[in-house]
Amino acid sequence: MVHPSLVNICFxxxxxxxxxxxxxMENMPLSHSSPQGAQRSSWKPWLLCSxxxxxxxxxxxxxxxxxxxxxxxxxxxxxxxxxxxxKWQMTTAEPPCVNKLSDWKLxxxxxxxxxxxxxxxxxxxxxxxxxxxxxxxxxxxxxQILTNNSIIQNVGGTYELHAGDIIRLMFNSEYQVxxxxxxxxxxxxxxxxxxx
Length: 196
Known about the structure:
This protein is an alpha+beta fold.
């Protein structure tokens, strides 16, 4: 049985006739018998209210993310380094989103959501003492490390970066990787446009 006050709380828009029909339904016999003095389950009204609340929340999130002020980059801004003997290849987006600092190092010039991608090919003939390690770093922080020297591995991910951030791909030893089969790049996906 749905208690009328609960209906009023969850659905205040019900008309008088609907309320009357609910009170009429209260006087109807139950389809199953229950022991004398047993309480009826009250989970059904709460299930109905919680389902309605969840649907409202999902609709709210959908509306928020539909109108979230993230805009995609106007012009593609892409930079790629490698495989050697290739050097930096960059698009001529205006304004530029990155600045090359050295072979495996970039400075971010625009705030935004960036995709960093790459491939690292270990040199199986490397016999040096340094353990195999390839690090993707943002400023002084390591954001990804590769330590498996038996397979070609992918490096990168999607990151929120800010103007002035330095991104670099570092090797424990420059002889640990096959530079003619190792590369990395970066793509500006979106610029956040926050309302003030």
